[in-house]
Amino acid sequence: MQNAKTPAGQPAVWFFDMDHTLIDNDCDVSWKKFLVRHGLAPASAMDEADRFFADYLAGHLDYDAFIRFQLAEFASRTPAEMAALARWHFVEVVRPLLYPAACRAVAAALATGAPVALLTATNEVIAAPLAADLGIPHLLATRLERRDTLFTGAMEGEYCGGTGKLAPAREFAARFGLTLDQAAYYGDSISDVPLLAAVGFPTVVNPGDKLAAEAAARAWPVVRWGLS
User: Fold this and answer.
1) CATH number of the domain enclosing 74
2) What is the Cα Rg of the chain in Å?
3) Could you please report the per-residue DSSP string of 21-66?
4) Is residue 8 part of a domain?
5) What pLDDT digit, counting tens, does each position of 24-49 carry?
6) How far apart are CA 69 and CA 46, in angstroms?
7) Phi, psi of 118 (to 5 degrees)
8) CA–CA separation, 142 vs 159, rounded Å?
């Protein structure tokens, strides 16, 4: 079912990746740096964070090991505590690194009246302040497990990265009677290829060499966004 405000041949649902797509930042890396800087995580965490980030860029991240590491500071904390820390992280680190062109792209998508979602591998708590700041009404992200109102330090369900983005994207589109053929997706990483290939309106943002080659081979549009 096409949105009444969406012209034929245009996206009827929009998905935006977060890190290095809307912002010049990797929030999983900056989150650990933020925690270390404020004495909330050990300094040794940075070496491990750098290793995981290198694996992510290379396209062979061990998601289970990464999640255990990334969520260590969530264990036995309340959602309110972590939401406050995530907001602090957003204001201090993330907001200054928003790409102006990305903000305009999100605003244009919202103006169509079509459903718009932030779709990110970053966990839902860290990603929520960015979605709220940009007025994106839907957040599809790695979910966090809770027990007795406290986070356990584990994720709930599937990791929302790589091929793990496909199911939530399809399910979200289906809520509106749509398919991924009618969807737009903006992504920056080689791990985004499965979803970029599945949507009808892919856009590659600031790609590295591997994704740039993939985009050229598939004739995907490429945009280069910066902070100025």
Assistant:
1) 3.40.50.1000
2) 17
3) TTBSS-HHHHHHHHHHHTTSS-TTHHHHHHHHHHHHHHT---HHHH
4) no
5) 999 988 999 999 999 999 988 888 88
6) 11
7) -85, 120
8) 5
Domain count, the chain: 1
What contacts 24+ positions apart, CB below 8 Å, involve 63-67?
63/159, 63/161, 63/162, 63/164, 66/28, 67/142, 67/154, 67/155, 67/159
| Domain membership flag for residue 25 | yes
Question: How far apart, in Å, are the Cα atoms of 208 and each of 87, 100, 163?
Answer: 29, 20, 19
CB atoms under 10 Å from CB of 213, counted, come to 12
Structure confidence at residue 52 as a pLDDT band (50, 70, 90): confident
Q: Is the dihedral of CA 22, 23, 25, 28 positive or negative?
A: negative
**Domain-located, residue 4:** no
Residue 189 lies in a domain: yes
- Please tell me the predicted confidence (pLDDT) of residue 1: 37
In Å, how far are 45, 188, 203 from 212, measured between CA atoms?
31, 9, 11
Task: Tell me the average pLDDT across 206-217.
Answer: 97
What range does the domain containing 97 cover?
13-223
